[in-house]
Design a protein that fits this description.
Blueprint: H1 21-28, E1 32-36, E2 39-42, H2 44-63, E3 67-68, E4 74-76, H3 77-83, H4 85-88, E5 95-97, E6 103-106, H5 111-118, E7 129-138, E8 153-163, H6 166-187, E9 192-195, E10 205-212, E11 218-223, E12 229-231, E13 252-255, H7 262-267, E14 278-285, E15 288-295, H8 302-308, E16 314-316, H9 319-326, E17 342-346, E18 355-358, E19 364-369, H10 371-374, E20 379-381, E21 399-414, H11 416-421, E22 424-426, E23 432-434, E24 436-443, H12 444-454, E25 456-457, E26 460-461, E27 472-476, H13 482-497, E28 502-505, H14 511-521, E29 525-529, H15 531-536, E30 538-543, E31 549-553, H16 554-568
Parallel strand pairs: 3-7, 15-17, 17-20, 27-28, 27-29
Antiparallel strand pairs: 1-2, 4-6, 5-6, 7-8, 8-24, 9-10, 10-21, 11-12, 11-21, 13-19, 14-15, 14-16, 18-19, 21-24, 22-23, 25-26, 29-30, 30-31
The protein binds one RNA strand of 77 nucleotides through residues 9, 11-19, 28, 34, 36-37, 90-92, 108-109, 139, 141-143, 145, 150, 196-201, 206, 208, 217, 406, 409, 411, 439, 441, 475, 477-478, 480-481, 509-517, 519, 528, 530-533, 540.
Length: 570
RNA sequence: CGGGCCGUGGCGCAGUUUGGUAGCGCGCUUGACUGGGGGUCAAGAGGUCGCGAGUUCAAAUCUCGCCGGCCCGACCA
């Protein structure tokens, strides 16, 4: 490709309404343009990268023995109704009526459709199967953001394993785990695999692949000592041993005028530090009032509650509901003496004595509370969100908590979808058994943006060779100089002939403009061909990543550069 | 969905308070000089100021309504 004939529109300034690095750079360097909120056009540069990522994913899926399908993106309502997700997905699914008035949804994922196809399977002898597709998905996100990191229309590789035995699922899951590791490494970054919540997918085990990045929106806890890592929606930590004094024989009520928050009570004369307070949250779980008790300095992980409590609807209670249930406003709530409501206490409160909590009378608290003596909790659960620095459950080292981008997610689904779709096969004994499914996803555009987040500098993107839009750019410093231009073209032909993705910058621009554009776009290698070099019979090779320069004799240039590129392809 | 900010040539912005000829930088076109990190000079093109109503002699500017975008939060496989 000749740059003078290409559509590679670059900007000199950062676009004003982009925040994330990948968002800024992908716009500025001419990889994409926004059409509307969460919907982007990939320009030729962007599409080349997306295509290379797709090919890597495809190769690794084929390597694993998976078969590629192509499903529709138009899904009929009834298939989604059978799994219960037509309703469960709520506003997140794009929906409309066709001309006959039939309800249609745009596919956000394909468990239903693949399970529906799997109902054609008859015998365990046809299993295992591994099915996948790489296709457009639609999700009407409430808040698309950060360029390609969170969009409403995107390409996803989604695969599905079908097995008769749990052991088969374990194997398929493991194969995907390894394939994902390899895929991300080839694409150009190494995410952390973490235990995750399965959310609305269902199933009992899932692993997310997370790339550390400030542009991300998922917090994970990870341990450098032993490699334990989990999404904070799931993470646990060792509890630091607390030594409490026995305290009083019975709770003592005391006035706390104006105290509303944990911090207020810490400051209050006669109050208590957050670690000695019991925080009381009121939730509505399928309409029932439930009290959640946590240590004052712990935060509730709502996802942990959702994951452990089987319920349709879980939400914080409204102010009037709280008043009616406990007779006091938030700030003075507590579980002491409460018997008419279900109480769930966090594990961190077990055995604690001499604590302080609300008295269920506005502006009054209780001190000297022994949790197990004074509060009739109906259940003990792990509800707290892990904090930075807490000891790892496996090795005791301090956990780090940081932000990440979710670039892949694999699920052990079980039989939820196969049962809903009637996907059963006959086993060895002639008995019908639901197929055991797993599902596995990678977002292509998000992975593309993740590479940029992971690999850039102050001058622009630094593409790994494997996914670079072009592996080499030949910068002809003075295109009007016939010798320069011809030297450039000869090298271009030579590299092209060797199968290198090469772009010839033949634009009539100043060298500085070309160098800056090349750096911004991020080609891994730049060959500079100028009058001085040509006169001396050399060209200059510059590596984008470290700026390392070397002079190469013109007659060896094609060969040397080809070798350098091939050495970095994976 | 709640809160905040914003919509003016392709990009970045000023002008809106106090209504009166739509402006700047970059980019773009043509030509010349130039040519190893966004060069110089000259001459140009390009905008119904997000949309619609209203007030007014007159609206980018004031009023009302709508649409769109970004950020924070809630939500989210």
């Amino acid at each position: 490709m000749r740059w003078s004939k290409a559509f590679h529109p670059t900007f000199r300034d950062d676009p004003s309404d982009a925040e994330a690095v990948s968002h800024k750079l992908l716009l500025r360097a001419g990889f994409m343009r926004q059409l509307m909120a969460g919907v982007y056009t990939l320009l030729p540069l962007g599409y080349r990268v997306a295509h290379k990522i797709t090919e890597i994913v495809r190769e690794e899926m084929n390597e694993l023995g998976a078969q590629e399908f192509r499903l529709p993106t138009l899904h009929p309502k009834d298939v989604w109704e059978r799994s219960g997700r037509w309703d469960a997905m709520g506003q997140e699914m794009f929906r409309f009526e066709d001309r006959r008035g039939s309800d249609v949804g745009l596919g956000m994922t394909a468990e239903e459709i693949f399970a529906h196809l799997a109902s054609e399977l008859r015998s365990y002898k046809q299993l295992p199967q591994n099915w996948y597709q790489i296709h457009t998905k639609y999700r009407d996100e409430a808040r698309p953001k950060s360029g390609l990191l969170r969009v409403r229309e995107f390409t996803m590789k989604d695969s599905y394993s079908l097995d008769i035995e749990e052991a088969g699922l374990d194997h398929a899951f493991d194969m995907h785990f390894k394939a994902y590791r390899k895929i991300f490494k080839r694409i150009g970054f190494e995410p952390i695999a973490v235990e995750a919540s399965s959310g609305s997918m269902g199933g009992n085990e899932s692993i997310e692949f997370m790339l550390k990045s400030d542009a991300g929106e998922d917090w994970i806890a990870s341990c450098e000592g032993c490699g334990y890592a989990a999404n904070v929606e799931k993470a646990t930590s060792e509890l630091a041993a607390e030594s409490d004094e026995a305290g009083l024989d019975a709770p003592e009520k005391f006035a706390t005028p104006g105290v509303r928050t944990i911090e207020d009570l810490e400051q209050f004369e006669g109050g208590a530090p957050g670690s000695r307070q019991i925080k009381t949250l009121v939730y509505k779980v399928d309409g029932k009032t439930v009290l959640l008790l946590l240590r004052g300095d712990d935060a509730l992980s709502e996802q942990k509650l959702v994951d452990t409590v089987e319920a349709e609807e879980i939400r914080p209670a409204a102010a009037d509901e709280i008043q009616e249930a406990l007779g006091a406003q938030p700030g003075s709530l507590g579980g002491v003496g409460v018997t008419e409501h279900f109480i769930i206490a966090d594990e961190a409160l077990r055995g604690r004595t001499n604590m302080t909590t609300g008295a269920n009378v506005d502006d009054f608290h209780l001190r000297g509370v022994s949790v197990e003596r004074d509060i009739e909790s109906n259940a003990w659960l792990d509800l707290r969100e892990v904090k930075e620095g807490e000891p790892c459950v496996q090795c005791g080292k301090a956990l780090a908590v940081f932000k990440t981008i979710e670039v892949g997610h694999i699920f052990k689904l079980g039989t939820k979808y196969s049962e809903a779709m009637g996907a059963t096969v006959l086993d060895r004994n002639g008995k019908a058994r639901p197929i055991i499914m797993g599902s596995y996803g990678i977002g292509i555009e998000r992975a593309l943006a993740a590479v940029v987040e992971a690999s850039h500098d102050e001058n622009g993107i630094v593409w790994p060779v494997n996914v670079a839009p072009f592996e080499v750019v030949i910068t002809v410093v003075k295109p009007k100089d016939v010798e320069c231009m011809e030297a450039g073209e000869r090298l271009y032909d030579s590299l092209k002939g060797s199968g290198i993705d090469v772009l010839l910058d033949d634009r009539d621009e100043r060298p500085g403009v070309k160098f800056n554009d090349a750096d911004l776009i991020g080609f891994p290698y730049r060959v500079t061909i100028g009058p001085k070099g040509v006169a001396a019979g050399v060209v200059e090779l510059v590596a984008r990543r470290d700026g390392e320069k070397s002079e190469i004799r013109v007659e060896h240039a094609g060969e040397t550069i080809t070798e350098a590129v091939l050495a970095n392809r994976r």
